[in-house]
């Protein structure tokens, strides 16, 4: 009798493993509560290794998404996906990250993402036409998605060899860095004031994609000469030589 129960247990265990191994990735995606600004199309493969031809975050297209599922995380009822996307031969962001909390509060960890600076600039609704150059390097240690945007965020953003073209003239800024945090559900970026522009600024991304920010511009010896003639449009500097910036 004991042998009979043992055979039945082995059969059901083997059958369960077989079912899991062949379970389509599209089924898993149907169980995940994605944020409203994320859409995914054409999911292929199994839950262990899946491929997504294209994903979209807001209106940013992400190509060649691949994911692998940790078996141990599935046993712990907290599926963890290792994700990579993009590549040298396709347009859009490129990087890798780990996602957990798929059945509750989604958490992103160990993210390394590169994207074109102009992808961000084009969405700022600036009063003049501006083309941003080079790449933004985004590093996220931990990001817990919440309302309206986040519950927790620890990360950094770096723009190496930063520069823009406006009015047919290119201006270079050097390197700009920002620390990323979460404040009352809003994403916050605090720019490191150690930069060629003398820029100290706090930008906030609010619900509905609304953007606000405030800070100061303190032109120094490394301030781009092409921009000095435009300082008068910022008003008068304060008694410390700083120009107030606010959006």
Summarize the structure.
With 247 residues, the chain is α+β, with helices and mostly antiparallel strands. 17% of the residues lie in helices and 48% in strands.
Average pLDDT score: 84
Order of helices and strands: HHEEEHEEEHEEEEEEEHE
Approximate shape: elongated
Low-confidence stretches: 4-22
Number of DSSP helical runs: 5
Largest sheet: 14 strands, antiparallel
The structural class is alpha+beta
Count the beta strands.
14
Instruction: Write down the Rg.
Output: 23 Å
Question: How much of the sequence is in beta strands?
Answer: over 45%
Distance between the termini: 77 Å
In percent, how helical is the residue content?
10-25%
Plain-language structure description:
The structure is a single chain. This protein has 247 residues and is an alpha+beta fold. It has helices spanning 2-22, 25-31, 71-75, 117-121, 225-228; strands at residues 38-45, 49-57, 60-69, 81-85, 94-100, 107-116, 131-133, 135-145, 150-166, 169-183, 186-191, 199-205, 211-217, 243-246. It has a domain at 105-246. Strands 1, 2, 3, 4, 5, 6, 7, 8, 9, 10, 11, 12, 13 and 14 form a 14-stranded antiparallel sheet that branches. The longest helix is centred in the first third of the chain and has 21 residues, at 2-22.
């Amino acid at each position: 009798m004991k042998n009979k129960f043992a055979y039945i247990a082995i059969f059901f265990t083997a059958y369960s493993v077989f079912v899991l191994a062949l379970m389509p990735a599209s089924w898993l995606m149907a169980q995940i509560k994605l944020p409203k600004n994320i859409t995914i199309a054409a999911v292929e493969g199994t839950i262990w290794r899946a491929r997504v031809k294209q994903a979209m975050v807001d209106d940013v297209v992400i190509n060649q998404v691949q994911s692998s599922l940790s078996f141990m995380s599935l046993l712990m009822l907290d599926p963890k996906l290792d994700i990579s996307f993009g590549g040298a031969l396709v347009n859009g962001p490129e990087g890798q990250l780990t996602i957990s909390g798929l059945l509750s509060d989604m958490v992103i960890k160990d993210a390394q993402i590169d994207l074109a600076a102009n992808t961000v600039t084009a969405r700022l609704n600036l009063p003049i036409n501006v083309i941003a150059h080079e790449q933004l390097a985004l590093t996220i240690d931990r990001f817990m998605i919440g309302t309206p945007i986040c519950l927790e965020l620890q990360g950094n953003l770096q723009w190496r060899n930063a520069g823009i073209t406006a009015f047919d003239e290119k201006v270079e800024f050097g390197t700009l860095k920002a620390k990323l945090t979460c404040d009352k559900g809003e994403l916050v970026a605090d720019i490191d004031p150690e930069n060629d522009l003398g820029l100290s600024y706090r930008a906030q991304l609010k619900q509905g994609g609304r953007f606000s920010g405030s800070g100061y511009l303190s032109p120094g010896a490394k301030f781009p000469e092409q921009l000095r003639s435009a300082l008068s449009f910022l008003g008068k500097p304060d008694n410390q030589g700083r120009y107030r910036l606010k959006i």
